[in-house]
Here is the input.
Amino acid sequence: MEHKKFKRRLRHILSVPFIWLMLIPLLVLDLFMFLYHQICFRLYGIPLVKRKEYVKIDRHKLKYLRALEKINCAYCGYANGLLHYASRIAGDTEKYWCGIKHEKTRGFKEPKHHEEFLEYGDEASFRGKYRQN
Here is the structure.
């Protein structure tokens, strides 16, 4: 049993640099997503997405977590919340520019925000919605 615990701990230790290195692209994404969201959504007239509805860092308040666990929980709350927030912004952008569903193929997991999109191949609906000239 001790051997399994050691191997598990070793795998965790080896993965830590890769997990924490992801913080750099996440911070860069956060900055550019903020700029894009604030500028383009205002120009397009798309309602702004409330960041606080997606990014939540609160598990560090749990008294039963150790210090390192609290730091890891804060990281996960930030990383997953940011990606959820970014996905929402990307989805709203997609809907504004071209809300067309993808072709139905086996195994593809259609995003939830595509429910209201036009059906793939429905040219008449597309022209009516996006080319009203």
In short: Residues 25-97 form one domain. The chain has four helices and no strands.
